[in-house]
Specification:
The protein is of the alpha+beta class. The protein has 17 helices and 19 strands. Helix 1 crosses helix 2, helix 2 packs parallel to helix 4 and helix 7 crosses helix 8.
């Protein structure tokens, strides 16, 4: 940017007007003569040298610059933006003669005209500069959607220059004090609820929360998983809800959006968190609760509050300033980032998949549970993990006695929880809901060859399953189903990664038979070259299905023609 230099070269009786708050710290500045007129100086760093520019200003311009921080910042922005400070190896974005005209406009017009010029005409500063002008001129303006881009490109380097050292220190202190005050206030607000977590339902602190939510809650109870947990929900018409698991409070909910029990949602949100309304945006939630825990962002954000964790759910991954997406606020004693959320226990898609026997013991009805899970897969509500035992094979494998644990894993397409259903050789069946993090830590027990436990039809079916026959270890994998060949080609562009799964056509198979793996490497490079193009010729051949493994996608592609023929 500009360089510091001593105020030499001033004529007798002249004075120097610095456009930045710290006198003598940096440029630009105006040398003012005894006649009231002056010369504005700016030096721009480019390719290891400094280019000096000078612009004539009138006595009126100087008077305006002296009394208006808005004008000084506007001139600064134009000079350092239009003279290509942020593109040091390029020529000036505007020639100096045009910059002179812009300076005359800024220092000769009204504040509103300055703002209009910079935010409407000058596309380089559209959005972000508008916010900075609002800050300096104390004008209430709409927050810009380009603020983040502006901060990265301009404000990070400019803010320290347009603020004095004292102002910077004062602002830092104010920011720190405001954050500390907010943290104390939020912790105090949630303290009664945090105190109730992990406590027995009859405890006084839990009963205090019941009083805060209202009276006469609707109580629902059911068993979850095997071995079974006993869940008890106290649902209030105010939109609040208490979840009790095995006698202790596991979670407290504030349903912001309407529910069957609370037709208007949790209307006391503004009382719970002052300044926060039901139509609040992400930005307003962060202003009220503070920044979320690092890495805990997405369709939900997690905030550490006192001794608990407040998780805020949104109904979509909306922009920060988009209103009316706040869905649910969940309070738990532990961070559920790598676990399942209590709010998902009544997921309409996967809750109730476990079927219990009608007998007094209430054990797992294995056959009915497998049927329910298979119906869920067929309807698209559940997705089966390919590397674990298939649902259709569980009973046969269990009866064979060849495996210690016959386990199937499925994923819910709505709440993204995983269901681990297992039949054990010497124990009762188990059924649990787990997170992706938990599932990835588990290693499936190897399945014995199908010839040891399957009938003739199952053995024939296994022969038609995709088999990995070759790979280069990083960029492509070749699968075979009978005489048909399928290739998964890894694709990437910059930090974006993906793949194309294609069935090789007859000509491509002949090329592979002639040139071997070298042909597949060339083919992968060809596919990768146009992967991000709108006119990618391989897109129409891609067999990839969301959430499916390569093998599952291949099987689905082979099943489609058979179903259509039927």
């Amino acid at each position: 940017m500009s360089r510091r230099r001593a105020p030499k070269g001033q004529g007798e009786g002249a004075r120097r007007l610095w456009l930045l708050p710290d006198p003598g710290e940096d440029e630009p500045f105006i040398d003012v003569g005894k006649d009231g007129r002056g010369t504005l100086h700016v030096s721009v760093a480019r390719e290891g040298r400094h280019d000096d520019f000078r612009f004539v200003v009138t006595a009126h311009h100087i008077a305006v610059a002296e009394r208006s921080a808005l004008r000084r910042w506007a001139v600064f922005a134009v000079l350092f933006g239009e003279l290509a400070v942020f593109h040091a190896d390029a020529a000036p974005a505007r020639p100096p003669a045009t910059c002179q005209q812009v300076i005359d406009t800024i220092l000769g017009g009204t504040d509103s005209e300055v703002e209009h010029y910079l935010t409407r005409m000058n596309k380089r500063f559209l959005g972000g500069l508008r916010d900075s002008l609002a800050l300096l001129s104390k004008t209430e303006l709409t927050r810009s959607s380009d603020r983040e881009a502006f901060e990265k490109r301009l404000w990070f380097g400019v803010e320290p220059l347009i603020m004095s050292k004292a102002d910077r220190a004062r602002r830092a202190q104010e920011t720190h004090r405001a954050a500390a005050d907010r943290e104390i206030a939020v912790r105090k607000i949630f303290e009664p609820y945090n105190d109730a977590l992990l406590m027995a339902e009859r405890d006084g602190v839990v009963q205090h929360v019941v009083e805060l939510f209202g009276s006469n809650p609707v109580i629902s109870e059911f068993q979850v998983g095997a071995p079974a947990h006993h869940d008890r929900y106290l649902t209030f018409g105010s939109g609040g809800e208490i979840m009790v698991r095995d006698g202790a409070v596991k979670a407290i909910f504030f349903h912001v959006q309407p529910t069957e029990a609370a037709q208007h949602g949790f209307t006391g949100l503004n009382t719970l968190i002052p300044g926060l309304r039901q139509d609040a945006s992400r930005s307003q939630v962060e202003d009220a609760l503070g920044k979320p825990v690092v890495g805990r962002t997405g369709p939900s954000t997690t905030h550490s509050v006192g001794g608990g964790f407040v998780k805020v759910f949104y109904d979509t991954w909306a922009k920060k300033d988009a209103p009316n997406h706040l869905k649910l606020i969940q309070l738990t004693a532990e961070d559920t980032y790598a676990r399942t959320d209590p709010s998902d226990e009544r997921c309409p898609c996967c809750a109730g998949m476990l079927v219990r026997r009608a007998s007094a013991s209430g054990g797992v009805d294995v056959g009915s549970t497998i049927t329910a899970l298979r119906h869920g897969v067929a309807a698209g509500r559940l997705r089966q993990a390919h590397r674990w035992v298939a649902l259709q094979d569980m009973l046969t494998l269990h009866d064979s006695g060849l495996m210690e644990h016959v386990a199937a894993h499925l994923e819910c397409t709505i709440c993204r929880r995983h269901m681990a259903f297992a039949l054990h050789r010497d124990a009762d069946p188990t059924f649990e809901y787990a997170s992706l993090n938990d599932i990835r830590r588990r290693t499936p027990e190897p399945v014995p060859p199908v010839e040891q436990w399957g009938d003739a039809d199952r053995i024939a079916q296994e022969a038609q399953r995709p088999e990995q026959v070759a790979t280069d270890g990083s960029s492509w994998i070749l699968f075979a189903v009978g005489e048909q060949l399928f290739m998964n080609a890894r694709c990437w562009y910059s930090a974006v990664d993906g793949s194309r799964l294609i069935r090789l056509e007859a000509a491509e198979v002949r090329q592979y038979e002639r040139d071997g793996e070298a042909y597949l490497s060339r083919l992968q490079k060809t596919i990768n070259r146009t992967w991000t193009s709108e006119e990618d010729p391989w897109r129409s051949r891609d067999l990839t299905r969301g959430g499916m493994s390569n093998e599952e996608a291949i099987e689905a592609s082979l099943a489609t023609p058979q179903e259509e023929q039927a």
